[in-house]
Write a structure and sequence with these properties.
The structure holds two protein chains of two kinds.
Chain A lengths: L10 H6 L2 H7 L5 E8 L2 H16 L3 E6 L6 H12 L5 E7 L4 H8 L4 E5 L8 H9 L8 E5 L16 E7 L6 H4 L1 H5 L3 E5 L12 H9 L7 E3 L9 H20 L16
Chain B lengths: L2 H18 L4 E9 L7 H11 L9 E6 L2 E5 L4 E5 L15 E4 L3 E9 L10
Parallel strand pairs in B: 1-2
Antiparallel strand pairs in B: 1-6, 3-4, 3-5
Helix pairs in contact in B: 1-2
The chains are: A alpha/beta, B alpha+beta.
Chain lengths: ~270, ~120
């Protein structure tokens, strides 16, 4: 054993190498290093890759989040019906178990990929990456990522989406944004859903819900709608159209896109 | 809960940084966590005890520095330390403020020891 550092180097090895010199030269005592890096870098890198992939195909990706049962899938069904041929929608569904939601979307004529997470309470960029590659993005304008029903964990994981939309049903408390500040602060749009029930509820104030969103320093629009009332969907569809145009406009402005490419009659500019 | 998967990401960064700094052991990991990061400090600490097993940080202490939520109001030119769900200027009450801190989830510092160099650590 080496008497200097206690390692198992044999006397022959020590004679043959500059072992003693090497020990003197290498620092082995404890030392502190400043790092300053994001903890979720691996996920963030994958998310950035997803975003590039989507941008390359000029597809808008929307991360749809809410509590379980707030009406995400019903809203997507109603949205597919309302949009008709104007743009082409695909959906990535996230649930712990079952293909039920993907089946509902496919029944509406839109392609859907189901991710079953098992026990994982949120989608992450790696799961979405695999799903994106199972879709034909050349014939898609908007991808909705319907996240796992959960107001806590999905907020922390960038998936590569362009916008976060958070649903809050009028059957929930109007103070949910104050109870779940992380997710509601990140919302680019808040949708108060199931408004067809407002006339039988006496304890949900849409104005209060909106004021709680503002108290998160969030200027996002707060729209009221019902998946059962197609006449309430226009502002939501208009928001999607504007978001799609802006996402494509950004893609066009990048220096390596010399030409504006689109499929005539189908794409929205 | 997802604090375990966050610890796994953290350990991935720790291993990367330890390798870059030619260390064989990690003794302390310091992270900065804000109330708007979506991560609970005590849950992170509990998850870390499990996640670190069998890694280069097996015996490391995790130190969580809690970063307060602070907003900047352009109109009043002041900063206010705030609760996570009330991001309002302490003077004029506006919600049109900029979040200066509070959403962090960062690995800030590590204490390392040992050298991965083959000559000094032969055995």
């Amino acid at each position: 054993m080496c008497e200097q550092c206690g390692c198992a180097a044999t006397p022959e090895f020590i004679r043959a190498s500059d072992h003693a010199g090497a020990i003197a030269a290498k620092p082995v005592k404890p030392r502190s290093v400043e790092i300053l890096t994001g903890i979720l870098n691996d996920n963030d890198r994958e998310a950035a890759h997803n975003r590039e992939h989507l941008d390359g195909h000029r597809v808008l990706a929307v991360n749809l989040m809410s509590s379980p049962g707030s009406g995400k899938t019903s809203l997507l069904e109603a949205t597919i019906d309302a949009i008709g041929d104007r743009f082409r929608i695909a959906v990535i569904e996230g649930d712990l178990e079952t293909e039920n939601d993907a089946k509902r979307i496919r029944a509406k004529g839109a392609p859907a990929i189901q991710i079953t997470t098992g026990h994982t309470c949120h989608l992450d960029a790696q799961m979405v990456h695999a799903a994106l590659h199972a879709l034909d993005l050349d014939v898609t304008d908007i991808v909705f990522i319907e996240n796992v029903g959960n107001l806590v964990c999905p907020a922390s994981f960038d998936l590569g989406q362009h916008a976060n939309v958070v649903l809050l049903a009028v059957t929930e408390g109007d103070d949910k944004p104050a109870k779940y500040p992380v997710i509601f602060r990140k919302a680019d749009l808040v949708l108060l859903s199931k408004t067809d029930l407002l006339n039988v509820l006496d304890d949900f104030s849409p104005d209060q819900a909106e004021s709680h969103v503002r108290a998160l320093a969030n200027p996002a629009p707060v729209l009221r709608l019902s998946a059962r009332r197609p006449d309430t969907l226009a502002p939501w569809i208009a928001w999607l159209e504007a978001r799609l145009a802006s996402c494509r406009g950004d893609a066009v402005r990048r220096p390596d896109n010399a030409r504006h490419e689109h499929v005539p009659h189908r794409a929205v500019e | 809960m997802h604090e375990l998967s966050i610890c796994q990401s953290l350990l991935s960064e720790v291993e990367r940084a330890a390798a870059a700094n030619d260390a064989t052991e990690v003794n302390r990991i310091v992270v900065a966590v804000g109330p708007l990061s979506g991560v609970e400090a005590p849950l992170l600490a509990r998850a870390f005890e499990v996640a670190r097993m069998g890694t280069i940080a097996e015996n490391a202490v995790l130190e969580v520095q809690k970063i307060p939520a602070v907003v900047w109001c352009e109109a009043c030119a002041i900063e206010t330390q705030v609760a996570a769900n009330a991001l309002l200027c302490g003077s004029c009450g506006t919600w049109q403020v900029e979040l200066r801190s509070g959403a962090e989830l960062l690995l800030t510092r590590m204490e390392l020891s040992g050298s991965a160099s083959p000559v000094a650590a032969a055995g």
